[in-house]
Amino acid sequence: MRIAICGIRHETNTFSSLRTELDDFSILRGDSILETGPWDQFRDVACVPILIANAMPHGLVLEEAFTRLKEEITVGLRNTAQLDAVYLDLHGAMVVESIGDGERDLVLAVRKVVGEEIPIAASLDLHCNLAPEVVDQTQVLTALRTAPHVDREETRLRAIKLLVRSLKEGIRPKNSFVRLPMLLPGEHAATGVEPAKSLYGGLADVDGEPGVLDASITIGCAWTDSPFTSPGAIVVSEDRAFGDERAKRLARKIWDWRESFAPDVLTLPVREAVREAIDSPESPVFLNDSGDNLTAGAPGDVPAVLKALLEADAQDTVVAAIADDAATSVCFAAGAGATVDLSVGGKMDTLNGTPLKIQAKVVRVCAPRLAVVRTGGIQLVLTSGRLPFLTIRAFEQAQIDPTDHRIVVVKHGYLAPELKAIAGKAVMAISPGCTTLALETLPYKNVHRPVFPLDDGVELEF
Questions:
Q1: Directed axis angle between helix 63-78 and helix 102-114, to 10°?
Q2: Number of domains composing the chain
Q3: What pLDDT, on the 0 to 100 scale, is given for residue 58?
Q4: Does 382 lie in the same domain as 255?
Q5: Angle at 435 between CA 434 and CA 440, to 5 degrees
Q6: Long-range contacts of 195-204 (CB under 8 A, 24+ apart)
Q7: pLDDT at 462 (0 to 100)
Q8: Is the pTM of this model over 0.90?
Q9: Are 419 and 405 in contact (CB under 8 A)?
Q10: In angstroms, rounded to a whole number, what is the distance separating the alpha carbons of residues 325 and 327?
Q11: Domain hosting residue 51, numbered range
Q12: How would you classify residue 399: left for phi > 0, otherwise alpha for psi between -120 and 50, otherwise beta?
């Protein structure tokens, strides 16, 4: 049994002015792929690794970059003899300049190479937006069940197990997908709190129903302006009519909870969020700059929260970080101990931020191209590239222990697990940026309307 392994993972923020180039992708080829996944659990399967590319959430993918990756995959498939199936490692919310939905284009290209009889399975992020062709041209679609994401390997394994089972038992699974007329920011559907907790917790029961091979709930990526942007329900079964009925049942449960989805922490406008953090007795208070969320494709250089902190005279505060190569270079040139005049941020996302002028003392410069400066009561981390501070290790690179400080600002949405574990309190700022939680302020052009919550009187119709 020979299964090809390939895929391109990217979550595209179409509201970002940035573009995703080939160099932004981390690419694994050949045997290096087999070192990173659950492939050794299938002793009776010959895995044929071709290419897996993954890029941090970012702006539109350049057509040339996507085409080169896609062509390497299709050539690899064409040159593989006696292929029994294909596994695709996808995200599900990729948009490519001049092409549109990236997964749609990739799946159609793979199907054209391998023919109609070869089964295709794909694992997805739960923040995927599914084009009809992706549903129809694959046999197994299964998505992550945790946000923040901690089950990527489990999901990959589930997809491949279903694929192997299909081959062994001679069955031909079919995907059923129901799209909901909703937009839902990922921060409103953390799976550790209601209603997402119960919805995702109930998937095991759906999986256990006779005739159901697998079930998934997708939240969608609200910052991808696409005709396919929406939450939805996937059911994999052997009978399409049966699967459609079960997917409708699951989708209706999501729809019934639509008014209840909300962030899992206190969420306030920027100035109120800053004041809440300053006045809170807990420590450290993690303050999430959600509008400039690097993990959802924002540039990470909007200085709005930093400005509000300075105006409020916040003390014992760390801001991690602002991406600004020019400001970082000034710090490296001046060296530790120097006082420098900096123009911080507002250079990539010029729509939502303008450079903030500060005078600061360079505390230290660190590899890789990272500087820590002090201005007022704030230690500001500057990075030459987009670097999300999701782990304790990331702070260690800046020689900062977040537990030593009263307030720690990160450019995320929901708080990453390692940071949540040490937080005395978490507050989310509804800040400006291309990942703003205020969806009504975004210039949508392509999503299907009417859509909840942007429009009134939206009804669910099957």
A1: 20
A2: 2
A3: 95
A4: no
A5: 85
A6: 195/257, 195/260, 195/261, 196/147, 196/261, 199/253, 199/254, 199/257, 200/145, 200/146, 202/253, 203/145
A7: 85
A8: yes
A9: no
A10: 6
A11: 2-260
A12: left
**How far is C-alpha 103 from the geometric centre of its chain's CA atoms?**
15
Could you tell me the two tokens for 375? 């201005």
Residues 224 and 277 in one domain: no
The answer to whether the CB of 370 falls within 8 A of the CB of 384 is yes
Residues 301 and 425 in one domain: yes
Provide the 8-state DSSP code for 11: B
Q: What is the number of alpha carbons within 13 Å of residue 443 lying toward its C-beta?
A: 5
Spatial neighbors of 200 by CB under 8 A, at least 6 apart, are 145, 146, 191, 217
- pLDDT score, position 37: 78
What pLDDT is recorded for position 383?
Answer: 98
Q: In terms of domains, do 248 and 294 share one?
A: no
For residue 35, give every residue at least 6 positions away whose Cβ sits within 8 Å of its Cβ, in sequence order, or none: none
pLDDT digits (tens, 9 = 90+) for 357-391: 999 999 999 988 999 999 999 999 999 999 999 99
**What integer pLDDT is reported at residue 358 of this predicted model?**
98
Query: Is 126 within the bounds of a domain?
Result: yes
What residue ranges of the chain have pLDDT lower than 50? Answer: none
Same domain, 298 and 224: no
- CA-wise closest residue to 13 among 185, 271, 255, 202: 185
- Residues 298, 244, single domain; the answer is no
